[in-house]
């Protein structure tokens, strides 16, 4: 959510100017507390769809139009994008870029910048369809970066050094044909001419990458969505690519787990994916509406990275018929968000089956056993939690509702580490 965190603090500590390593969600030594901090600001309408940490600043994107500081409730107009101080929660007044459409994806960039993806057409009055890079200090577009999709939107972003990956339902960037997935120069925005995963979606309207995750070493990328083939090889809704070189190479790793039928109206029921901090495994989350033995609908599932050929999930945790949208793997836990009511519910059919546990709107899963952890802060469910991002200090959650742990938190909150 699925959008991926790139920790700028790591870059500063390493003294690497203008470059960022590939990073999965930050490793955390323990499960976060169930009591969110009291100082985060509020989005007063719409949905928070993406969150990224850039140094001591948290950048937030979505479909909202107004925000407010905690305690003051003086509305500040910030359509689709705003930022706040990670320590105080105060809205950054200097960051007020003008975008004319929803923001779905964020990724921290070098030199105190952030990459922004979504359904917008202009940024600060200039054409920048679906993709831009902004200064976190003043909201200005960072030159010379210039990239535009042909139509659709950008739903997911990931960064590895000076390489920027973008995914969505587009079919071209800067006039270069790229179905659903492209690699760009993070400085100029130019499309990498040698990198083309050649994704196809047989008998579907179009290819659509819903989410993606880079391994911590930046060598592999998992893309999920409306996909049937990658470079001519069957890859049902999930493709693992070797992205370590100049070309996109389809890895000899695949799974048939997502051949199983879910809601026939869906071209894909995969919604999110995230790598573990050590790169040993990744976890997917799905929608789908159908339940029963062998179904991968409405579930979280762990897959091991090692090995070649066909892979089955190590474990699957079912909600019993409610969608999961977002996932964050920290080592200590697998956090999932959606509009679920339960976890550990393989026999539920929009009902609480035997052994199910209540986990409304947000929950945590034991990475080893695949069973729900005791952590249960609760969240008013709404449509669902679209963004879950781990940082060195805690776990940020973005959604379309205003109750988190039975407290008022307007569409965003943060659970701290103990």
From TrEMBL:
Organism the protein comes from: Asanoa hainanensis
Q: Which residues does UniProt assign to the signal peptide?
A: 1-24
Q: Which InterPro entries match?
A: Delta_60_rpt (IPR013431), Quinoprotein_ADH-like_sf (IPR011047)
Q: Does the keyword Transcription regulation apply?
A: no
Provide the protein name. PKD domain containing protein
Ranges for region Disordered: 343-372
Q: Which UniProt keywords apply?
A: Signal
Pfam families assigned to the protein according to its UniProt record, in alphabetical order: DUF5122
